[in-house]
Design goal:
The complex is a heterodimer.
Chain A: H1 20-23, E1 48-56, E2 66-72, E3 96-100, E4 106-112, E5 117-118, E6 124-125, E7 128-135, E8 142-148, E9 172-175, E10 180-182, E11 185-186, E12 196-197
Parallel strand pairs in A: 1-10, 1-11, 8-9
Antiparallel strand pairs in A: 1-4, 2-3, 2-7, 5-6, 7-8, 9-10
Chain B: E1 34-35, H1 40-43, E2 72-80, E3 91-96, E4 121-125, E5 131-137, E6 142-144, E7 150-152, E8 155-160, E9 169-174, H2 193-197, E10 202-203, E11 214-217, E12 220-221
Parallel strand pairs in B: 2-11, 2-12
Antiparallel strand pairs in B: 2-5, 3-4, 3-8, 6-7, 8-9, 10-11
Classes of the chains: A mainly beta, B mainly beta.
Chain lengths: 198, 233
């Protein structure tokens, strides 16, 4: 066990084209799934929603070998992590999901609409879902956020406020009927999704 | 703007646009990333119980009737934070080509055999000191279409989580002395030689098992530290 301070972190490398067997087998491969795109548990309170969309490259072509991971608070705005001292241990909701894209770049998550989360300086953040985007051709994953159409709290959100006004809409999932929200991810180009340097 | 984790640590990573790796050209952002403070959302992350890892998941060689083809190896090490402290109880996922350089995947067209006795993926949870261990087969090099006569150096894909969502890391572990290193644009997308070296495992004679398997040691260093304050003020 080393006690020496490391010289630096381990660099990222691409997830490559062949991750599905290990990370997103979902019945297509023999290996089992550690995570799925269904975050809903029987005991989770809150509004059940489905977030779906497609991932596109700089030419507007669907990206079929992409993996999305999401991390979010529960309906009360609490994270399932001991570091969030407000967390309740009495729910199975984990707040984490993973989904590989299909041949048309499509993905979907079934989850619970998150509550507002504390932000910098004690100001609340509007309900949001964190997204990490992995793919062949991406040497390092991208971080983005999904906000929700029609949330009054978006106007005062401290992170959205850092985004140039003409790009904010790329972070807002649109209502698509029923419990559905639509959120497309454009890796590059005119409609490029806002990615964060964190 | 202040950050709970030093943002300079990210300089070890490759540039997202690394044109020698051709697929990055249309899949990397063309607009500037937005710098933002780390909030509770970024500084928390998924926590796993033992239900995620089943007994035997860390041995890729014994889940079928026969012995896999190739050279059996042990791969072990620690998952560390930026202070060198072990990251306990964190999930480590691996996947890799078999000894012939072939992946189990519908789109892998390399004319090399699949191995019905090799499990192409594994999973482990670090112990209280951040230690993990896998038993697997040494993966083969394989060709790819990036440029004429392009071959990937032998590697094992690693996916690790760490203390928070921003410590998430997907990387590749390489083997010491691989002659393909100078020609691989993915390996060389990491431009700092010292950072590149952190992706190469060390041959570990001390933990090599006589008459059974060579051993390689691979430590992964993730962003963050245990004592991180919850929020940048």
């Amino acid at each position: 066990m080393t006690e020496r301070k490391p010289e630096g972190i381990t660099p990222s490398q691409t997830v490559g084209p062949f991750f599905a067997y290990g990370l997103t087998p979902t019945g297509r491969y023999e290996w089992n799934d550690a995570f799925t795109n269904d975050l809903v548990t029987a005991d989770a309170s809150g509004e059940r929603i489905r977030i779906e969309g497609q991932v596109f490259d700089g030419d507007g072509r669907p990206v079929p070998d992409c993996m999305l991971e999401i991390w979010q608070a529960d309906a009360q705005g609490r994270f399932v992590d001991p570091k969030d001292k407000r967390a309740l241990p009495n729910t199975k909701f984990r707040g984490f999901g993973r989904c590989g894209t299909g041949t048309n770049g499509e993905y979907a998550f079934d989850t619970i609409k998150p509550g507002a989360v504390p932000g910098p300086g004690g100001k609340p953040q509007a309900p949001h879902v964190l997204v990490a985007v992995f793919a062949r051709g991406m040497l390092l994953h991208n971080y983005t956020r999904i906000y929700f159409d029609g949330e009054a709290a978006n106007a005062a959100d401290p992170v959205l406020a850092l985004v140039p006004a003409d790009r904010r809409l790329t972070l807002i999932a649109k209502k698509s009927g029923g419990s559905g929200y639509r959120f497309d991810i454009h890796l590059q180009g005119d409609n490029e999704t806002v990615f964060f340097d964190v | 703007m202040t950050f709970a984790y030093p943002i300079d640590s990210n300089k070890a990573h490759p540039a997202r646009l690394s044109p020698d790796y051709k697929s990055t050209v249309k899949r990397s952002p063309s607009k500037p990333l937005i710098i933002m403070p780390h909030t509770l959302s970024e500084l928390t992350g998924p926590v796993y119980g033992h239900e995620t890892v089943r007994p035997g998941d860390a041995d890729l060689t014994t889940q079928h009737k026969g012995e896999p083809i190739g050279e059996r190896i042990i791969v072990h090490g620690h998952v560390l934070d930026e202070d060198g402290h072990g990251v306990p109880n964190t999930l480590v996922e691996i996947w890799q080509a078999n000894a012939c350089g072939r992946y189990i995947h519908v789109r892998d067209q390399h004319p090399a055999p699949l191995d019905p006795n090799f499990t192409g993926a594994g999973r482990a949870q670090t112990n209280s000191e951040g230690y993990y261990k896998f038993v697997t087969m040494k993966p083969g090099a394989y060709p790819w279409g990036n440029h004429h006569n392009a071959w990937r150096p032998a590697h094992i894909h690693f996916s690790v989580f760490g203390h928070s969502f921003v410590s998430r890391l997907v990387t590749q572990m390489y083997f010491p002395g691989d002659p393909l290193f100078p020609f691989d644009p993915i390996f060389n997308s990491v431009t700092d030689a010292k950072a590149r070296a952190r992706m190469i495992s060390d041959f570990d004679l001390e933990n090599t098992q006589p008459e059974w398997a060579l051993c390689y040691r691979f430590n992964l260093v993730l962003r963050g530290r245990d004592a991180t304050p919850m929020e940048a003020k």
